[in-house]
Amino acid sequence: MRRYLNRWGFQYTRTRKKTRSLREKPYVRQQRHSYLHAVRDYRIRGYTIAYLDESFLHHYHGKQFSWFDDSDFIERPSGKGRRWCFIDAVSNDGLIPNCFLIFEGRKSTGDYHGSFNFDVFYKWFTESLLPNLSAKTCIVLDRATYHMVPEERIIPGQMRKGDIQEWLSVHNILWEEHWLKPKLVQLMEANIDRTPLVSKEAQKHGHKVLFLPVHHPELNPVELVWAIIKNDCAKKLRTGVSFSDVRKHLEYALAEFSEKTCRKLNEHVKKKEHEYWDMDVELENFDDDEVIEFTEFEKDDYFFEKQAMCYADRNY
């Protein structure tokens, strides 16, 4: 449980005046606040906000509950079957035209992200998304690994010393002959351009790319779009439905998705953004006003408590 809570951005720390046993890690809060500030700024500057996301739909995706009486016998197919993987983008006016990509997920293990990779995503991003965006668009996406691939896909620690020296020389970065590999690696790491390739490509077309903070899918309206569409498809699960029929149901649900619903979802996300903004400001003010003054005994207690927590983490 400790591992999961840490992964979600919470930290276990000493309780203060108000009970806050579960607290977000500072970097998560700062990352969210920076995102909220940026997306507000882009809206003020007249950018259209477009959100994108990937998802999947299993062959036997159906409703989990149904109304029936004691004489009914309802049986869903065993297993999930094959799955369709798809990606699309949405703005305040609805799904962006000519952007929908769908294919069968061939990988039988892992989640649907295993069926996507950088090549698939980058091809869709450059050939389907960018040509169909309106002028001055801010593209919002999550921090999946294949979304954030930089132009230089190199790992200094896995390179030979001579190759690192050559790379530094080509980029006009000064180094000294007596330096060992660890220092050369550190220098190279500090000078590698980690800007995602999709950000550079969007910039060429006059657009911006903005990455969502970690652990915040609720700030992406596409997540709600997929939930509505997949629920529509679930209602159509019947005995004998073919895998190709599932795709038709999905495409039909997308075609029928209304602009009105899309605007409501965007407004819902904006409301959530305001809530987070107010909460961050409130917590910041509270932390500023909160001064901890320990006695010598309390300092010792706090120190030993931290030591015990670290020891427990190592032996969990």
Which short descriptors sum up this protein?
10 helices; alpha/beta; 316 residues; globular; Nucleotidyltransferase, domain 5; 13% strand; two-stranded antiparallel ribbon; 8 strands
Topology:
Layout: H1 2-7, E1 10-12, E2 22-24, H2 26-44, E3 48-58, E4 83-91, E5 94-95, E6 101-104, H3 118-129, E7 137-141, H4 161-170, H5 181-191, H6 197-204, E8 208-211, H7 221-234, H8 243-256, H9 259-289, H10 296-314
Parallel strand pairs: 3-7, 7-8
Antiparallel strand pairs: 1-2, 3-4, 4-5, 4-6
Helix pairs in contact: 2-9, 4-5, 7-8
Q: What is the string of SSEs from the N terminus onward? A: HEEHEEEEHEHHHEHHHH
By CATH, the architecture is named 2-Layer Sandwich
Question: What is the radius of gyration computed over CA atoms, rounded to a whole number of angstroms?
Answer: 25 Å
In the CATH hierarchy, what is the superfamily?
Ribonuclease H-like superfamily/Ribonuclease H
Structural class: alpha/beta
Number of domains: 1
CATH topology: Nucleotidyltransferase, domain 5
Number of strands: 8
Number of helix segments? Answer: 10
Sheet-strand content, in percent, reads 5-15%
Return residue spans where pLDDT drops below 50 for at least 5 consecutive residues. 310-316
Measured between the Cα atoms of the first and last residue, the distance is 10 Å
Average pLDDT score: 84
Top CATH class: Alpha Beta
Query: What overall geometry do the principal axes of the alpha carbons give?
Result: globular
- Give the biggest beta sheet: 6 strands, mixed
Helix content: 40-55%
